[in-house]
Design a protein that fits this description.
Order of helices and strands: HHHEEEEHHEE
Number of strands: 6
Distance between the termini: 36 Å
Strand content: 15-25%
GO biological process, one term: SCF-dependent proteasomal ubiquitin-dependent protein catabolic process
Number of helices: 5
Number of domains: 1
Largest sheet: 4 strands, mixed
C-alpha cells in the first residue's frame, strides 16, 4: 500500500499522535516520496509538530587501532523533527535511513530518556 503526501499529512502529522508516528511520516515523505525538505517543514509547522522531539541512540562498531579493536561507540542525542529537516540532524537522519548496517549495529529510538550507561555520552544537547 502506498501513501501519498496528503495521506501522510492526514494520518501521521497530527499533534495528538505519538511523536514516533510523526517521525515515521517524516521519514516516509523524505525517503519514499522524495519530498523537498522545505515542503515537509511547512507542513510540520502548519500541524504544530515541528518541535516534537525523539531520543536517538545508536552503537557503532569499535575501530581497529594497531591490531586491536577498540570499544564500541555509543552516540546519543535528542532531535526535533525540525532538526531532522535541517543540517542539525543530518547525521541522525542518515542513521535512521540506513538502519543497523555497516558500522552501526543497533539503533534505538524513544520519546523518553532511557537509562544511559557511563560509557554512552550524549553527542548533542539534552533538550
Amino acid at each position: 500500500m502506498q501513501f501519498s503526501f496528503e495521506d501522510v499529512h492526514m494520518f501521521l502529522f497530527k499533534p495528538k499522535l505519538n511523536v514516533l508516528l510523526n517521525l515515521v511520516g517524516l521519514h516516509y515523505c523524505i525517503f519514499c516520496l522524495e519530498m523537498p525538505a522545505d515542503r515537509v517543514m511547512d507542513t510540520l509547522v502548519g500541524c504544530n509538530i515541528v518541535e516534537h522531539k525523539v531520543h536517538v541512540k545508536w552503537w557503532k562498531l569499535g575501530r581497529w587501532f594497531h591490531g586491536f579493536r577498540m570499544r564500541d561507540e555509543c552516540c546519543s542525542c535528542w532531535v526535533s523533527l525540525e532538526d531532522l529537516l535541517t543540517g542539525k540532524g543530518e547525521e541522525v537522519l542518515g542513521v535512521l535511513h540506513r538502519g543497523a548496517v555497516h558500522e552501526v549495529f543497533r539503533v534505538e529510538i524513544s520519546i523518553s530518556n532511557p537509562k544511559s550507561t557511563s560509557w554512552c555520552q550524549s553527542t548533542q544537547g539534552e533538550g
